[in-house]
Amino acid sequence: MNANVNAKRKIKSSTIRKLEGSLFIAPWVIGFLAFMVFPLCYSFYMSFNTVKILATGIDVKWQGLKHYKYILFENGSLLYNDLFPFLRQALLMLPIIVVFSLLIAIILNQKFWGRTLFRSIFFLPVIFTTGQVVQEFMSQGEGQLGFLERYNVSSLISTHLTSTWSTPIVRIMDSFVLILWYSGVQILIFLAGRQTISASVYEAARIDGASPWDTFWKITLPAMLPFVLLNLIYTTVDLFTFPTNPILTKVTTANYGQSSALAWIYFAIIFVFLAIVFLVFSRVTRSHAAASR
Predict the structure, then answer these.
(1) Number of folded domains in the chain?
(2) CA distance 125 to 147
(3) Residues 211, 174: contact at Cβ < 8 Å?
């Protein structure tokens, strides 16, 4: 009897948790179905057509894969000359932002005077730095590291590396401080994840004689792996809306069909990029789990 009662309680509690999760996600699902599904489907339809806005309405003429062929093969300068260097830049920016956010979150989790103030300072750029603000800072040459010009680091990088990688590295270093401004949300996520680890675990590790370095690799990092994945996904999506993104500046309303095709190609590239992130993270997680056994 007791076993049956406990089983029923577990079923009820799991059902309640599912209902609570459904209620929390319901506003997003309703908003997505009401405002996003039709525009997405219609933009996909427009990517196969030539669309003209006339006084009498919208003139649509079927073109098939013409826009996709034009962007990918006939006029691929936007993708291959502009987007691919940006992707290499994003590939370098991703670990920088995630690692920086993790370290700052661990520091901000410590008990010290003015902790709340410093947490607010690190999150403020998320509120104030819109894309136009960051672009203006970059155009003024702000965000650079002072020692780069002093020691001529940029020219050294360009000399010893090919232009394929030296260009994105130099661009990152020229706006390094502004890139770190994009770490506010990631720091908040890591901070919340760090606070899920019980203090008793660290106390037990200290009693056993573990050093701070050991506790980081054996306790903190394994417990933070789900939050690392979450931040990798968030940062990847956030970087693809970075102000220097060439795709965002090229999409226009002059040719809705071609712009829609470009947007869907860009979406496919983002999807592949995220799939690579998932694949690499899953392999790293498996190797770490195997090493800890």
Answers:
(1) 1
(2) 24
(3) no
